[in-house]
Specification:
Blueprint (H helix, E strand, L loop, with lengths): L14 E2 L24 E6 L3 H19 L3 E5 L5 E2 L7 E6 L7 H16 L6 E6 L8 E6 L6 E3 L15 E5 L4 E6 L12 H17 L5 E6 L12 H6 L20 H13 L2 E3 H5 L11 E2 L10 E2 L2 E6 L6 E6 L17 E5 L12
Parallel strand pairs: 2-3, 10-11
Antiparallel strand pairs: 1-5, 2-17, 3-7, 4-5, 6-7, 8-9, 9-10, 11-15, 12-15, 13-14, 16-17
Length: 364
């Protein structure tokens, strides 16, 4: 990782910032930045620690990004802490550099090396936004090619400036012709507790309100949505339906089973799709169960979850966009996690055709 080293300026709160680049979002001056209005190629990926993926799987990851050449990359489970001193409010839009005399080398590897890696191709071609948790947990990131200039960027479902969702679970970008929502949805958990079933119900209620109240523009909603909608979306329905943790059985039968595959979650998700007039892009193109490439999450190759897989990472698009879906694919396969790049989730891609009135081509 030392090959990525570059001196990075630190703020007074200890955060690391990416070096200023010509043509960035704040001071867009190059011609290309001002021309393209609508992204057409997208990637979503739960990286299960983006820093570790850059540290351990960077060449393969760069090859994938270079090959697909996405306009937008949505990352979940960044798992890097937000900037700010202990006991003070955190800056969820900046990475923490917890440098001390005894941890200088670790800090260099953590912050400097990461920023240096993201300054080089292919990631150097993108503007990046972060929404981070207070600790090394959850968090999201969004990379948008510099030739696109979003009108607005929010980090919450309420579209309030500068506010971040707890644990950095939301990045919402508004382009001229559409919105893109990147979310890391809270796991349902196993019990009737505030940080388990109750938290997920509240989230589902809020996201339902969001999709029904923001229909003035087409929406692309992507990310780790932590739910498998139908039996076709899991490798072993009986296994997941009967799953328990330490023998615990929830009082409500609809809450029984593997988090992400309980009847209550699936029914709420179906209602969100219906009321929000959203289309599951992958299922729109793929009607049959694919045991090799039809799942985005795979259990540990060692243990009872070996070979057990779920599709919980999605691209959901407004119905008015469905006829423009060209491709939606999962790029991992097999129970040995090929194409997962070190994560337990594989990247999912979406490609749209240009709209009939698109001005996506650069004028002469």
């Amino acid at each position: 990782m030392k090959r990525f080293f570059q001196v990075i300026n630190k703020d007074s709160d200890g955060s690391c910032k990416k070096p200023k680049e010509e043509g960035n979002y704040d001071n867009a001056t190059d011609t290309d930045t001002q021309k393209k209005k609508e992204p057409l190629k997208f990637v979503t990926w739960n990286a299960n620690s983006f820093y570790l993926r850059v540290k351990n799987n960077f060449p393969e990851l760069c090859k994938f990004v270079t090959s697909f050449d996405p306009d937008v990359i949505a990352i979940q489970e960044v798992r890097m802490p937000a900037a700010g001193s202990k006991g003070t409010p955190k800056n969820q839009g900046e990475l923490k550099d917890d440098t001390t005399a005894s941890r200088e080398e670790k800090a260099v590897l953590f912050c400097h090396a990461l920023m240096r890696a993201l300054s080089a191709p292919p990631f150097g071609n993108y503007r990046v936004w972060w929404s981070l948790a207070d600790s090394k947990y959850a968090g999201t990131a969004l990379f948008v090619k510099k030739c696109f200039k979003p009108k607005n960027v929010f980090f919450n479902l309420d579209k309030i400036a500068s506010k971040h969702e707890p644990d950095g679970r939301v990045i919402l970008v508004e382009f001229e012709t559409l919105r893109l929502l990147n979310t890391y949805v809270p796991n349902n958990g196993w019990k009737e507790e505030p940080n388990s079933f109750q938290r997920r119900r509240k989230w589902d209620k809020r996201i339902l309100e969001f999709v029904t109240q923001n229909s003035d523009k087409p929406l692309i909603w992507c990310g780790d949505l932590n739910v498998s909608h139908e039996e076709i979306d899991v490798s072993h329905p009986e296994f997941f339906s009967a799953a328990k943790q330490n023998g615990y059985v929830p009082p409500n039968k609809e809450d029984c089973g593997q988090p992400g595959f309980t009847l209550s979650e699936r029914r709420r998700f179906g209602n969100i799709l219906k009321e929000g007039q959203l289309v599951d892009a992958y299922r729109f193109l793929h009607n049959d169960k694919d045991m090799e490439r039809g799942f985005s999450w795979s259990g540990n190759p060692i243990g009872k979850y070996r070979g057990k897989r779920m599709r919980i990472d999605y691209f959901l698009v407004s119905e008015k966009l469905k006829d423009r879906i060209v491709a939606c694919e999962m790029h991992g396969h097999g129970i040995e996690l090929q194409g997962f790049y070190g994560s337990d989730h594989c990247p999912v891609t979406l490609e749209l055709s240009p709209s009939s009135n698109s001005q996506n081509e650069n004028p002469e």
